[in-house]
């Protein structure tokens, strides 16, 4: 069966640039450009194919719908027998001018950036083939937000033995505290986006540890990465990087050669491992 890569949230911005980057890097296999909106996804694929990326195909995926992830898993199993590259790029952030209550912003942002990533991983990590590569798109804001947590929370998020269940409870505690207006008093940062990305980074570390324990000889590498400050609908036009520049690190992690042992379980920014 031929190789296959999946990129989530890929109809525009960094996700679209990642798909294009994988194509230009010579990924040998099909690249699934996934998006929630089928029309926008199909248009993005048509544009890439017109540029010569003939191995890009569309598959609908709403990361906030667990059933959607399971449908994608079934498709991958039936057509390809597994998965070789997964880049969890789908994400969202409220604008600074947003008028929604902070508790609502926290819940909505968490649903996409943390729970969405988790649900896709729950569906697709079990079908990773040997030497697969996974990159969860996080942010440098995760490190900045970690530094703004109180010492107790920092210690929890840096605990190398933290379980996925414990992390999920912490993410739920943040949303509840945000909804009751107690988040800063409880030692959380005043950033819904930043806290969700703490979750994405720590989740990646946990997933990498579990893969090392459960599939030690399979050569699978999984990391979190930061694209940088990229000119997208989300970050705005004043950002310093183009989408193509933002795609460089995710594509680098996806294309790590067979036999590579690292990075694994790291936060990678500009192709460099960052201290957590």
UniProtKB/TrEMBL annotation:
One annotated GO molecular function is: carbonyl reductase (NADPH) activity
Q: Which UniProt keywords apply?
A: NADP, Oxidoreductase
**EC number of this enzyme:** 1.1.1.184
- Matches recorded under InterPro entries: CBR1-like, NAD(P)-bd_dom_sf, SDR_fam
Q: Can the keyword Nucleus be found in this entry's annotation?
A: no
Family the entry assigns: Belongs to the short-chain dehydrogenases/reductases (SDR) family.
Q: What name appears for this protein in its UniProt entry?
A: carbonyl reductase (NADPH)
**Lineage of the species this protein comes from:** Eukaryota, Metazoa, Chordata, Craniata, Vertebrata
């Amino acid at each position: 069966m031929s190789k296959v890569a999946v990129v989530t949230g890929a109809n525009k911005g960094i996700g679209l640039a990642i798909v294009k980057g994988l194509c230009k890097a010579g990924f040998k296999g099909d690249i699934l450009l996934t998006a929630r909106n089928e029309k926008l996804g199909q248009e993005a694929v048509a544009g890439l194919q017109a540029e010569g990326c003939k191995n890009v195909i569309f598959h609908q995926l709403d990361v906030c719908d667990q059933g959607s992830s399971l449908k994608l898993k079934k498709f991958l199993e039936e057509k390809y027998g597994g998965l070789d590259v997964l880049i969890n790029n789908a994400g969202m952030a409220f604008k600074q001018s947003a008028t929604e209550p902070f508790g609502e912003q926290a819940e909505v942002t968490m649903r996409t950036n943390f729970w969405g990533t988790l649900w896709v991983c729950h569906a697709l990590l079990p079908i990773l083939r040997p030497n697969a590569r996974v990159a969860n798109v996080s942010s440098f804001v995760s490190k900045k937000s970690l530094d703004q947590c109180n010492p107790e929370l920092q210690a929890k998020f840096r605990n190398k033995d933290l379980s996925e269940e414990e992390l999920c409870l912490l993410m739920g505690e943040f949303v509840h505290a945000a909804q009751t207006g107690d988040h800063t008093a409880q030692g959380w940062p005043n950033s819904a986006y930043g806290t969700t990305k703490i979750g994405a980074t720590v989740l990646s570390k946990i997933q990498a540890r579990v893969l090392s324990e459960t599939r030690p000889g399979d050569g699978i590498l999984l990391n979190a990465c930061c694209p940088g400050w990229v000119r997208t609908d989300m970050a705005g036009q004043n950002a310093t990087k183009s989408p193509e520049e933002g795609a460089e690190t995710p594509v680098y992690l996806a294309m790590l050669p067979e036999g590579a042992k690292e990075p694994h379980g790291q936060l990678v920014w500009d192709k460099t491992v960052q201290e957590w």
